[in-house]
Task: inverse folding
């Protein structure tokens, strides 16, 4: 079947198009407004950074793989941040409880592990040599 040959329907349609006339006149400055819209469509739209991020998220999360990757990244980053904060707080609490314990035993004694040098392995060995009876 050859689709390039005009059929009877095409001939009738072409005849109808030739007979059709537009009787209404376009609004004033119609051509100018059309050209302004064309120029606006051609010009790259300057978008704000939040708008670009929003568009990127909308595009990425529209696909299941993008949404799964986004959720995985958020969970890993959030879990890592939470673990880090919990670890630091636990270390501070542990150190404070150790100080309180040493003060409860002897209020005039300074705990060795509160010294900056005693926190490192070299410092711990030095403290053990200098004070074998005290534990860190």
Result:
């Amino acid at each position: 079947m050859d689709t390039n040959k005009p059929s009877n329907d095409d001939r009738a349609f072409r005849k109808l198009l030739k007979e059709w006339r537009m009787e209404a006149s376009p609004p004033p400055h119609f051509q100018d407004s059309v050209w302004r819209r064309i120029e606006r469509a051609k010009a790259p739209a300057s978008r704000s950074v939040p708008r670009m991020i929003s568009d990127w998220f909308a595009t990425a999360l529209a696909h299941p793989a993008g949404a799964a990757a986004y959720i995985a990244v958020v969970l890993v980053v959030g879990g890592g941040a939470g673990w880090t904060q919990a670890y630091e707080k636990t270390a501070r609490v542990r150190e404070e409880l150790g100080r309180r314990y040493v003060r409860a035993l002897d209020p005039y004694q300074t705990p060795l592990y509160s010294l900056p040098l005693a926190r490192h392995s070299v410092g711990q060995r030095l403290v053990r040599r200098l004070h074998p009876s005290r534990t860190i």
